Amino acid sequence: MTDFNRSKLPDSVRSNGATPNPWWANAVVYQIYPRSFQDSNGDGIGDLKGITSRLDYLADLGVDVLWLSPVYRSPQDDNGYDISDYQDIDPLFGTLEDMDELLDEAHKRGLRIVMDLVVNHTSDEHAWFQASRDKDDPHADWYWWRPARPGHEPGTPGAEPNQWGSYFGGSAWEYDPKRGEYYFHQFSKKQPDLNWENPEVRKAVYKMMNWWMDRGIDGFRMDVITLISKKVDKNGRLPGEEGSEIADLPVGEEGYSNPNPFCADGPRQDEFLAEMRHEVFDGREGFLTVGEAPGITPARNEHITDPENGELDMLFLFEHLDADCEDNTKWKPTKLELPKLKEILNGQQNAVSKAGWASLFFDNHDQPRIVSRWGDDSTKETREASAKALALLLHMHRGTPYIYEGEELGMTNAHFTELDQYRDLESLNAYRQRVIETGVQDSESMMHGIAERSRDNARTPMQWDGSKYAGFTAPDAATEPWISVNPNHVEINAAAQCDDPESVHAFYKQLIDLRHRNPVVAAGDFRLLDASDRQVYSFVRALSSKDGQVAKRLLVMVNVSGEIARIPSETAALLPLDVDESHIVITTHDSAHTKLSLTKRELAPWEGVAIEL
Fold first, then answer.
1. Where is the Glycosyl hydrolase family 13 catalytic domain (predicted)?
2. What is the pLDDT of residues 150-196, one digit of tens each?
3. What whole-number distance in Å separates Cα of residue 466 and Cα of residue 488?
4. Pick the catalytic residue: 90, 174, 218, 292?
């Protein structure tokens, strides 16, 4: 199982530039959203004991690392991303003892556990924030507090320190009558931003991280970690504040300006990450760090993930997931243009070709299901075919793949039709802001946007079987799941797929195994082919020997459409005249079908293949 039978990359193969190669260079990570994974006590909410009960399934799948979305104590305003106590488990999920049991049982199976680290902000119910509401308390400067704009009555419209908007709708400033000032929150008003400029904040964060590492976890996925350094002028004023030397951006259609250019990848970002590495991870082995990185370019990804710079192992970049949004507006989805996706992913691959590392993902807890987004979930045949095709496309890139719970089954969007079916704070706030308060989008268009892009699409319960609640909780449980089970769980579930060699689940097992044992897949160079073709996504992976001679090559071709596609010229020129079935490394169809397709120089709808050259 996983580490016990996974071959490690030899030092003659370069991964991220470190020597020896890190253990995760040919690993696969599986993200668990605990609230929706497995309910063990019938309260309608997934928990730690539920995760422990499913470890054999995960070990059998072949993944190496489990990333848990937050299970810390929390008021659950944003489903746990608002933390009130970093060193305790929320009773919804269990106890610290349950966490220790999960760690122990996972490690027995060769599975590592990575926890979500949310330190750009806390809950407003955290003891640190409550103390900071007193200007005379030692914690007074642990958050971004500011007085009302001069000449305005505190707490009234227009008195906010600047015009920044929250990513969850409305102003990014909330007035606190007790302190008589405003605090800054990039997300919910119950998620105040920590002030990382204060060294005492950083010391407290590092102390907490060390506490968890000493307890036995194997690393952290760091939520919006590239938003911790804010841009201020020489007097410490934020852009747009009264007297600030830095001008704010103009307000947008919702009536607020965008804080992102001043909060993402700020001037002290590298300093903070290097300090964290030194204070928490120096002297430790076997860990993994990955940062959620809004606002980070591929070039900056190279710097941050280059082991020489001592910051993070890898980052999640998001430009490829903005490729199908009108005017970069999430709630205005458009059809994906394949050349645009190629351009973005090619840039990410090329940026880390000499140093650093890439993370590979389409799905996570904040994204709609990829088979509904870029595939075709309209029929069983097209859903399975497109799920496999998109999986092959992603997993054959260079980097560390991340699988989100249910992705390996081809789980789809929720296909909700009514607003009251949604639970996601972002979606509900966006509807109120855009439809009711500002009228910048009509209700029908907005409901379409939410159906396509709401985070709840990824948060419906894991589909274990075809029973009433999909095996997520007992069919006779007194409490229904916290969010509705997708009705298609009767057809799409683990029980139906685990013993089916043609299933999406079986195909993911092949992909994971291939990365474990094939150094070309794990670390070979990447070269894009036929960049402008609108149906076929193709590239070459090549592994060179120590003397620079190319030793092995793989040609990857994926038809990202529901129509037959001609193999484009640059790709076709590399194809042997007669492809031997033994040269087919992996295919979404069977080898005989793919051999015939390649002989015709075409790919069937949603057909993907990798062959040895």
1. 31-459
2. 999 999 999 999 999 999 989 999 999 999 999 999 999 999 999 99
3. 9
4. 292
